[in-house]
Structure formats: C-alpha cells, structure tokens
Write a structure and sequence with these properties.
The complex is a heterodimer of chains A (272) and B (148). Chain A is of the alpha/beta class and 272 residues long. Chain A contains 9 helices and 12 strands. Classes of the chains: A alpha/beta (272), B alpha+beta (148). At the A-B interface, β5, β6 and α4 of A face α1 and α2 of B.
Amino acid sequence: MTGPSGVGIGWRPEIAGFVAGLPGLRFVEVVAEAVAPARPLPDGLTELRGRGVDVVPHGVRLSLGGAEPVDPARVAHLAGVAAALDAPLVSEHIAFVRAGGLEAGHLLPLPRSREAVAAVVANVRRTQAELPVPLALEPIAALFDWPDDELDEADFLTEILDATGALLLLDVANVHANARNRGGDPAALLDRLPLERVAYVHVAGGAEHGGFYHDTHTDPVPAAVLDLVRELCAGRRPPALLLERDGHYPPAAELRGELDALAAASGHPVVT
Amino acid sequence: MSGDLAARQAELVAALVAGGPLPPGFAPAPVAAARRALLRKRAGDVARHWPLLAAGLGPAWPATFTTWADGRPTNGSLRDGWDLARDLRDRDTLPPLGAEELAEREAASRYDGRRPPRPRRLPALARTGGAVAVQVAGRVRLLRPAPR
C-alpha cells in the first residue's frame, strides 16, 4: 500500500480555495459523511484528485465502539466514498457516538475493558470486510474516564490494533488533551504505542475552557502539541501529518504558518 | 460493573444529552464539562444550518441555544434549529432575521415537529413574526421582511 505522505490538511468547503492553492500538497482528508458517493464530487476534490493528491475519507459517525453492530448502510457509505475517491485508505475512530436510540453528537470514549475491546474488534472486522482499502483507527480525546478501566490506554489500543490488523491514525493533539485532562505523560504514551503501524498523524488546535483543555479544531495549534510532534518525529517519523481545522478559519497567511510549522516540526517538505 | 456495555453506554449518553442521572462511578465535574462541550458543539452545528437565526441573535446565540437544548436530545441540526425558532416565535423573542429564515423554511417544507421536514408540492405562503414568504414550484421568495 502506498499511503498518504507529507504534510496535509483537512479539506473543508470553506477553505477549498486555500487548499487548492497549496503547491506542494500531496494529501488531504475529507469528512466521509459530507460526501455523497452517488453524486458528483465537489469541484475542489475532483481538481485535487486530478493533480494526484490523495484524498482520505475520515468517518465520524460509524460508532465502531458501540455495543451494537455497526449499521451496514453506514459501512456501505464509507466503502462507496473510498471507491469514489480512489482513496488509499479510510479512517474512523475508537469511540461510540450513539446508544439507546440517542445521538451524542460527538465522539465518546469507551471503557478500557475486555468487553469494549471485543465490541470494537467485532465492529472493525465487520467494517473491514466491506471496505475496498485498509482502515486506520484514531484514538479520541475525552474529558472523562469510565470507572472500570481494566487496561491502560497503550494496552487497550494495541489489543484492538493487533486483533484487527488495522492501521493507527495517531492524533497528537488528542494525546496532549488526554494527558492534560485525564493525567499521564504524553511522551511515555507515545513510547508504548505501536508507532510502526501509524498511517498518518492528526494535529489540531484547542483552547483552555473551564479548567479543561478542549480539542476544538477552531483554535491555533498550541506550542505543546508542536513539541510532541517534534518528539514523535525525532524518533520514528510518520509518513504523513495532517492539520485539522473545522471552523473560525484564520486568514490564509496564518493557516499557511501553521502548515509551515508542522513541516518544520516534522521534517517533511513545506507544502505552501 | 461489566457485562452490559450497551446499557451502560445508553445511560452515559442519556446523562450527556437527555438530562439523565450521572451513571455510578463517573466523576461529576469532567462529565459535566463534556456535557457543556457537546452543547457548544451542537450550537455551532445548528448555526451552520440556521445562519440567519444565529446571526439575528448575535452574541446571545450560544447561550440561547444551549439553554434551550440542555436536556433535549438532538433531532439533527435542521430540526433542532426549526424547533428552537418556533419556540422563540411563540415567546415573541424571535429576531427579524430568524423570522425571515423561519418563514422561508415553512413556505418551502412541511414540518410537523415529529418527523423530518418534507418539501411542499403545492404553492404555499408562510407568515412568521411579520415576515411573509411564498413558495411556488420549489422556489422561495421573501415577500415582506420582518419589521425592525
């Protein structure tokens, strides 16, 4: 598999013009649920594909960590988007987003228990069986823990990856957020993760709010997150890193600055 | 504490979005922070579907939305904004921009408050807070703006 490489950015309609103007860009990510595979792709994505830019569908509503089996229609949609974009891989989260008929509206953490590992593994296998390409799994940021953890974060993630053969989408901002809000040493966690399985890395901004660090994707990337990127890449540099920005878009120069900082911290070529 | 992940996930989601009790063993402050963060994220999602309603409320939007939405599970951003706009209209607190957006939506689609809105097939006129919108063959026009 040739996966994504270099520094990328999350493609969003609001910044399509900015993304189209990045000369060195080799990969972007698109929210899978925002693409309708049966209809023509947004012009911006078609242009990028024409330039040979990889587009990775990133699912947010599959609920792989739900105790119930994944919805086959959602899996089929993700597979359809991957095919329509001729994507090298797709990604989703180790999380659940609905239960008991209620939508949470965002990614929620799982207990780090054997029961939860089994539920995720079963859903990942159901999904992989329908996907035309490999699946990368992203551990999420959360503000709270379940009371009955049996495993620590590294063992929990490694068991899921080992049992499914899935790739890892490592979100460095989530590692930072979890360490700030739930304790633990972010560098020590990175040391214990199976970094050879990293398909690409997410980097995003956040802000302090009410005594917690919130992974907002609408604020600048903090220096502490860039430091973690530097540390990660000094050890084993991941093939690709992607900046996620989901709102409060800054002026182009500021966004270019964030991409340049990511290139500098990782040692990948500048894309701007 | 184990054996029924489905039930425990349902309890947690109910506590976060439907005003349910905090499930045993969870730390109250972090779960409360997560509940507020979900409401803020939802406010942003609904504002994208109802840009004039949110703009009409201006700096009051986040608090107006989160107060209304707290303990009320989402029906999707389109319906959440619609339900809130009707609620504000009934309390005479819908701003003119929101009244115009609501009138246009009501002219375009039939929404009974319980099932997803469906496009109207016949021409329709909708009045909301002094705003009047008309829809013919799927095209919507604001006939009269809401009074400022």
